[in-house]
Amino acid sequence: MKKIIIYKGHDIRISGIPTKETSSIPKSETVALLPKTFRGVKPKLLVNEGDTVKIGSPLFFDKTKPDVKWASPANGLVKTIQFGARRSVEKIEISVSGTEAIRGEAFRQEQLTRADRPTILSRILEGNLFTLIRQRPYNKISNPNDTPRDIFISAVNSAPLSVQIETVIESEKEAFQAGVTALSKLTDGKVYVTFRNAIELKDAIVQTISGPHPAGNVGIQIHHTKPITPGDIVWTVNPQHVITLGKLFLSGVYVPDVIVTVAGPGATAPQTVYAKVGSRVDSLIINQKLTDPTRLISGDVLTGQLVADDGFLGFYDSAVTLIPDTVERPFMGMLSIGSSDTKYSLTNTFVSLGEKLFKFTSSQNGEERAIIPLNAWDNVLPMDILPNELYRSILAQDIEEMEQLGMWECDDEDFALCSFACPSKIDVGAVIRSGLDLFEQEC
Q1: Would 82 be classed as within a structural domain?
Q2: Is residue 325 part of a domain?
Q3: Model confidence over 357-391: pLDDT tens digits?
Q4: Number of domains in the chain
Q5: Cα separations (Å) of 420 from 138, 178, 294, 343, 386?
Q6: Cα separation of 349 and 352, whole Å?
Q7: For residues 254 and 401, what is the distance between their CA atoms, to the nearest angstrom?
Q8: Which of 86, 215, 262, 332 has its CA 20 to 30 A from that of 23?
Q9: Which helix (H) or strand (E) covers residue 176, if one does?
Q10: Which residues of the chain, if any, have pLDDT below 50?
Q11: CA–CA separation, 129 and 254 (whole Å)
């Protein structure tokens, strides 16, 4: 068994840690999918306002990959279809009513073991759940006509305030195993599953990883296991989505359940809750008494997206992070003496008085300025990549140099800590994403 040890990185000492126990909350009265949030997708509607849909019904498909459809996470009425510029589909909102679902063929574990690739692929496409599978490079929805070199599953959540995924997998071990077995039929290579502490699995290569965040990022695990080279396609699947696929095969229906953390310095009652895919955010924060201005983030604090309380949980997100939306500007702040309890730093700038959790706010504590060569990016990026040089090659739009510097392996989530650690307030992850978009167009 391979053991990966990560030395570079950082676990942010952020307050508002969620409970380990999962609580039940009132179900969201509406759910929604946001087609505009899927990279490279050109959506074509399959429903109209007022239509009745079941759980698993197709709502829209990708014009560039017509076989790839998005399943409805609820039974009910299509309440709203919101369009943006040039009639682009921005939101499909469904009023939840009942639990009726489209039922398809179910498999026993031994049937999954004997099944071939066309059978497994056909069932996932019929269940409208191929959208749970993403590819590297570019971290976009995969093409079912491709055969991936390998499939990677990260069973480690190292991001701040994230779900204790090991506990989730342990409680859904049968479905997780069924999902892994099904995915193993889709590649001529291997399925790699990475844990903090290994558990026994069939039809996969199990490995362990230790170290600070971003150890749980699947891109980091691919880099330290079998790096992506030009022409490679690697598929990745979130562990909760592996369970969803497993349930599709074992029960024949789409079970749109997800376990979500509602946490952060702005949360008055940090917790872990049961929810549905695409739930309204205000239904998830129902137990939070928000009297002060609070920034709501769908996803973790490093890679999530700003969302309003009447917005919806992102399709791939399993966290709602609450951050106080306040900016305090102390007089002569740059010259004041402080400790690591009052001023957070990844360097030895301030006296360290322990490992106290820090109540972060939305303040950046400064504005973008000239890059300072302190190796701040290098110290938190556990990849054999030169981030500063790659950053400059992207700004210069030098495709050849970008490729030589390892662009094939990069994703913006792997550089999120670089943005956090940067003393110059550079959004490194956003620059990496712009480089990937340019790289995809040119290559």
Answers
A1: yes
A2: no
A3: 999 999 887 888 888 778 999 999 999 999 999 99
A4: 3
A5: 22, 38, 20, 14, 17
A6: 9
A7: 44
A8: 215
A9: helix 173-184
A10: 339-340
A11: 8
